[in-house]
Amino acid sequence: MASTIALNFSNNFFPIFAITMLSATNYQVGLISSLPPLMALIMTIPAAILLNRAQQQKKLIAISVLIARLMFLLIIGIVYLPSPSMHSWIFLTIIAFMSLPNTVANIGWQTFISGLVEESKRGAFFSDRNRLLTIVGLISTLLIGLLMRDASSSVTAYQLLFGAAFCFGMLEVFLLMKHEEEPTKMDSLTAKKKTMDWSIFKYKKYVAFLVAALFFNFAWQMAWGIFNIYHVRYVGVTIFWVSMFAVGNMLAQFLSFPLWKKWAEKRSNTLVFVWAAIGMATTPFLTVLSTNLYYIALVQTSSGFFLAGIILLLFNLLLEQSPEHVRTYCITTYNVLLSVVAFIAPQIGIWLLEIWGVEVAMYINSSLRLLSAVLFYIVYVKFTRKPEVLY
C-alpha cells in the first residue's frame, strides 16, 4: 500500500509535470515511458545475479527501493537549477537512473513473493491484494485531485506531491524489512549458480506465452505516450482530471477483480486473458472519438475493468507457464525481453503520432491490441488443454 501511494503520487503526474512545468517536447514525453525499460534492460542481468547470490533478498530489495525513492528529492530541486532549457533533459536523466534500483526491486519482489505465496492460494491472494492496493490508490489519488484541482500551473504543488511520495517511499522500505525470510545457505552449488539457463526455451508452453505476452505488451505500451500527449495537449487536462481519470480506472479495477478471479478459475487464465485483451483493444479507439472530459473519464473507467484482468492474469500466467525449477530464469528472461519491447513501443507510438496524427495512431494501436488477443487465443487452443511438452 505504501508503494502504491508513493508511485501514484509520482508516476501518474510525471507527464503533466514535464509538459506544463518543464516544457517537454512530444519526443521527451515519449522518453518518460521509454527510458525506464531501457535502463531495466541494462540492469536486469546484474539484478538477477545479485538476487541469486543474496542470502536475504528482502534487504537487497529494500535498499534498492530506498535509492529509487531518494530520486524524488532530486526531481523536487530541478526547477532551481540554471538553464531552464535543460530542465526537461535533467528530469529524464533522473527518471533513467531511478529505473536502475527499481529494476532490482521489481525482479526481486516478483521472485520473493512467488516463494511466499503457495501456488494453490496464488489466485485468491493476488485478487485480494490487488483489490486492497486499488482502493488505497483510488482514495489517495482522489485526495490529490480534490486538494490540487486548481494547482496545475503551480510548481509548489508538484514539489509537495513528490515530497509526499518520498515520505511514503520511506514507509515502504520500513515495511519491506518487516517481512519474514529464512536466510539462504550459500553452499558450493548456490555459489556457482548459472547466470542463465537456456533450457527454459525447451518448454513450448513457456515460449508460446513469451511470444504472445511480449506482443501484447508492445501493443499495450505503444499508446502510453500517445495517451499522455492527447490528454494534456489536445484535451487540456489538469491535475484534477488526471486524478479523476485514475480514480475511475482504479474504481473499476477494484470492483472487477473478484469477477476476473472467478472467471479465471471457471475457464482458464489464458482464455479469460483473451477477453481482457479484447476489451483493452477498444480503449484507444474510443478515446479519440471526443475531447469531452466527462466522456474520456468514462472511457478511462471502462478501461479499468479490462485492466484489472490484465494485471491479475498476466503475472499469474507468467508463474503458471514457468517451470518451478527454472522459474527465476524464466522471470528474468521475460523481464529482459519486456524491457526491450517497452523501450521500443512508446517511441514507435510517438513516431506514428508525428507521421499520421493522433487519431490514426490510436486506430492502429487498437488493431494491434486486438491482434494480441488473437495470439493468446491461439496459445489457449494449442497448449492450455494439453500436457507440457519438452523436447
What does this structure look like?
The chain is mainly α and 391 residues long. It has a single domain, classed as Growth Hormone, Chain: A (Up-down Bundle), CATH 1.20.1250.20. It has 15 helices and no strands. The chain has helices at 2-8, 14-20, 26-53, 57-76, 87-116, 122-147, 155-176, 188-191, 204-222, 224-235, 239-266, 269-287, 293-321, 327-356, 358-384. The longest helix has 30 residues, at 87-116. The termini are far apart. The relative contact order is 0.15. Residues 187-192 and 386-391 have low confidence and may be disordered.
Task: Please name the defining characteristics of this protein.
globular; 15 helices; Growth Hormone, Chain: A; mainly alpha; 391 residues
Number of domains: 1
Please give the oligomerization state of what you see.
Answer: single chain
Overall SS class: mainly alpha
Please give the alpha-carbon distance between the first and last residues. Answer: 43 Å
Radius of gyration: 21 Å
CATH architecture field: Up-down Bundle
Q: Quick summary of this structure?
A:
This protein has helices spanning 2-8, 14-20, 26-53, 57-76, 87-116, 122-147, 155-176, 188-191, 204-222, 224-235, 239-266, 269-287, 293-321, 327-356, 358-384. With 391 residues, it is an all-alpha fold. The chain is globular and about 50 Å long.
